[in-house]
Structures are given as structure tokens and as C-alpha cells.
Amino acid sequence: MNFPPSFILPFTLGLLFISCFLVIIIGIWISGLSRIDKSRIIHNLFTRKSLSAIGETFSESLIHRKIFRKNPVLGYMHMSLAFGWFLLIVVGHIEACNHYQSLSVPAYKAIFMRYFVTEAPDTLSGKILAGSMDILLLFVLSGVFLAYFKRLNSRLFGMKKTTQLKTGDRIALSALWLIFPLRFLAESVSAGLHHNGSIISEPTGHLLSIFLPIQLFEMPLWWAYSASLGLFFFALPVSRYMHIPVEVVMIFLRKYGIRVKIRIDGYTRIQVYSCSRCGICLDSCQMTHAAIRNTQSVYVLKHIRNKNLTDEKLFNCLLCGRCQPDCPVGLELNNLRLTQRIESTRDYNSSYDYLKNGKVTISPRTEVIYFAGCMTHLTPSIIKSMKEIFAVAHVKYWFMDEDKTACCGRPLMQMGQYEAAKKLVAHNRERILASGARKLVVSCPICYKIFKDDYALPGITVQHHSEYLL
Asked: Whole-prediction pTM value?
């Protein structure tokens, strides 16, 4: 019985480890979904939504369309690594199946084919596939070299900042950067010895054989290639590259209608691990320009994964949402931070027992409610102008927060104190409905959004004062 060579052991063990790990951890996360979300998966699995998810996986996880639109050079780098490696796997297995005339070829024979097949391809299909593999490997190598330069000088790629790496990231990144150069060298050396290469590996192997005793390097290079693959697989769960498999799962679940909740569940963890830490969100964050670091979304998600998130990092954010449209993965960054804030402040929620629901002393014949908002009280000229407009137009109105005691509840929500915010919203809502008003005019855009999205006000039109004046 012929046993495979020992150098494939690191690759085989690494592949076995990461396969088992992903099945277990993703299974745990999905089991942590709510019953409704699980039913969404079951009902949508064999629908067009799954086809749409496959399309998005191709365009965003492999082609990186969103990154291309924002930064073509950065997009090419990501695409060459992701899509190029994917094609190397697919075309490599097609080449192995074509050579062995079988559909059940072991993975290691496709990955290390130039070692096992020492003769040059003699069929047209074999020559085309071998040439395609050389071109694809060159395609991936171009992305690897761009990644080298990006790490050395990110400004050449139009990025002011790049993310900070931890130990797991450095190990996985080093392994990833070695995989493809080592594969190219191993295949070229084998081509120089056995003349089984193609349009790039064959002449490279011949050139190396002129200057080096390549027979001494063949096995060490195949061992190094296998070891780099195995090391990458073992480092994957503790590195940023965990996003590669998890992002695909997230895309499918998102297509099925699953969203981040106000409580941490399996989907929250899937979103956290889907962050690739590409660093694109750093330049859009106002805190970055204020020289405040470690509070940006990419770092908060990293700290959540590493279980070392502090309140300073969690709460030192305006929740302006500028990072969210720039995220190529489409993560719900604000909701993820709010969910974590709710968890962090669970023991500090104010009871708000002093709020007394009941009869409101405002006349039910009030036509319009005016709500200035906290920020508008800092610019009293707006309030003065609105009062004059109401007076000239003879509008009967109630200035709801004239005494500055009413709040829309947004600050409490931003602090993660949703239970307290719900009580305040319920109190305000009862007062608004009891007034009999048909319009709620708001000057603060934040308050406007809260009244529109978080208050159920049937029969009442919520307008910003700019809309009301029109």
C-alpha cells in the first residue's frame, strides 16, 4: 500500500482542524438564534434569496465590488487574493480530475499536483489547465506584493491609517504571505527537475537550475509550502481572517432577513467575526481626525472578539454612522455597538419611576406640538424664529420642551439604557397623544429621527421645521 508523502501532514492536519472548528462554532452560533430567525432560515433556504446570497458572496467576498468602487487599487489587491485563490482551488481540482480521469481526487493531490505528476501534460486540455494555473498563481502573487507595499506605506493606496495587528493576525498574515511565493518556488523547482511546468513555472525552473542545485531545494520547498498552509489554517480562528468563511454565512443570514437585535445572540457574534479589519472605516471616522484611536468600529469589534473591551473604547463614539456606509461587508456597526452598550449598562439602568403617566394638563384642542430638542436649546435664535412664525401664522401650538425637561430618549438609547428609554418614550408618547395635536414639528434632526422611527404616533404627522415651513 502506497502512503502519501509525509510533507502533506501540516496541510492535512490544518485543513481537518479548521473544517471541524468551523462546523462546531458556526453550529453553536446558529443554534443561538431566536426561534423566529431559525424559521427564517428554514423557509428561505430553497428560495431565490439563497441565489441572491450566492451572487452577493461572489461580488463582495470574492470580487470585492464595494472596495473596487471606493479604491480600485485596494479592490484589485483584495480581489486577486480572494478570487485568485478561489480560482486556484477550483481550476486545480479540475486539472487533477482531468489528469487522473476521476471525480474523487484527494485534496492534497490537487494542491500539490506538480509534486505528484512529474511528467508534462500531453493533451490540449492538460496544457491549457496547466497554463491557466501558472497565470492564476501570478495573479495571486501580484496581490501578495501589493499587500506587502500596503503594509509598508498605506498612503500609496489612498489610506491614511491601517489597522493594528495582534499576535494571531501577524501569524496568519505571515503564513498567508508565504503560501503563494512558496508554491511558486516549489512548482518552479519541480519543473526545473522534471520538466512538468508550464508557461511561467517551466522557464523559471530552468533559470533556477542554472544558478542553484535545485534538487536540494525541492523537498524543503514543498514542506515549507505545506507548513505555511497548515499554519494559516491553525491561526485562522484567532486572526482577522476568520472573516473569510464567516462572512459567507452572514451574507446568507442577512438575505434571509436576520438582523442584529438589542440583545447579543448568535447573529451578533457572526457579524463581529465577519469584520475583515480592512481599515476602510478608519478614514471616515471623525475620531480618527481628532487623533482619538482604539474607539473606531474596527477596533471595538476586535476588542469584543478578544474580550478586552473597555467602557472608554465602547462609549467614546458619536454613533454618527459615517463608518457604516463605507463598510465593504455591510456590517450593522451602530447596532453592534448599541447592543454591546446595552450589555455593558445592564446593571445601571435608571428606573425613571418619577415619570407619572396619566392625564396631561395641555388642552386637547392644540393644533401643533413644537419640540425644539436639546441641541436647539443651545441655539435660541431658532426657537425665537419658530415662535414668531407660529405667532404670525396664528397657529395654536404647545411648546413641549420649553422648560427643557422633556427629552426624546435618544441619549439614553445611545448609552445602551433601552429600558429607561422605553419608559421615557412611553411617557412622552402619552403626553403627545393626549394633546390632540395633528402635527409634531421638530427642530433637532436627531429628535426628528427618533419621533419618526421609535414613537408610535397614529394620526400625527412628524415634520422637521424646514418641512413644516414649506
From this structure: 0.85
